[in-house]
Amino acid sequence: MKSSTEPRGGVDCTWVFAYGSLIWDPGFDPQEQVVARLDGWYRRFCLRSLRYRGTFDEPGLVLALDAGEGSYCDGVALAIPPAAEEPVMASIRARELFNPAYREIRAPLQLQDGRVVQAFTYVVNRDHAQYGDFTPAQQAEMIATAAGERGPNVDYLFNTAEHLSKQGIADPMLDRLSAEVRTLQRELT
């Protein structure tokens, strides 16, 4: 995906903030996509995946937005075409809210082009059993070996890191984790 340089959506559109797989697999054709910043939250692998990228026997890890004072997350704001708002939001909610591990919030985003919009996004529910605080080594080990309904956990990590980079979004944590997972994969084969 490339960021739009000529705005086609508006501040009155329905927006979704993508910080993980929604960047590279939104499930719809955005009317507009713009690099954006969400204040007060940061991207981290803190949610066990028991379905999409892992199983109950071998959990994977997926990203979530976790609250942190003074933190921020750079991602992509996706404008939903007005005619598709209802089915798109229903599809995103079915995907993100199939269990209460995530909560839906609406928050202001600072778009790279200077606009400020309200966007839906999905943040971690720290009270959920799938939430955890994992060391980088634990994250790498889980991600290197887990797979679920949507495929290997490594694909989720590598696709997210690659698409963030293509958008010009630096995420040193994901880059380090990707390198560590690649090393583990070589050791396991």
Report on this model:
This protein has 189 residues and is an alpha+beta fold. 30% of the residues lie in helices and 35% in strands. The protein is built from five helices and seven strands, in the order βαββαββαββαα. It has a five-stranded mixed beta barrel with strand order 1-3-2-4-5. A two-stranded antiparallel sheet has the order 6-7. Helix 3 (136-145) crosses helix 5. The longest helix has 17 residues, at 172-188. The protein is globular. 40% of the residues are buried.
Task: Jot down its keywords.
189 residues, two-stranded antiparallel ribbon, 35% strand
Instruction: Give the class from helix and strand content and strand pairing.
Output: alpha+beta
Task: Quote the distance from N terminus to C terminus.
Answer: 32 Å
Oligomer status: single chain
Rg, rounded, reads 16 Å
Spatial order of strands in the largest sheet? 1-3-2-4-5
Strand content: 35-45%
Give the number of DSSP strands: 7
Q: Helix proportion of residues, in percent?
A: 25-40%
Instruction: List the total number of helices.
Output: 5
Low-confidence spans: pLDDT under 50, at least 5 residues? Answer: 1-7
Order of helices and strands: EHEEHEEHEEHH
Largest sheet: 5 strands, mixed, barrel
- Overall geometry comes to globular
Provide the residue-averaged pLDDT: 93
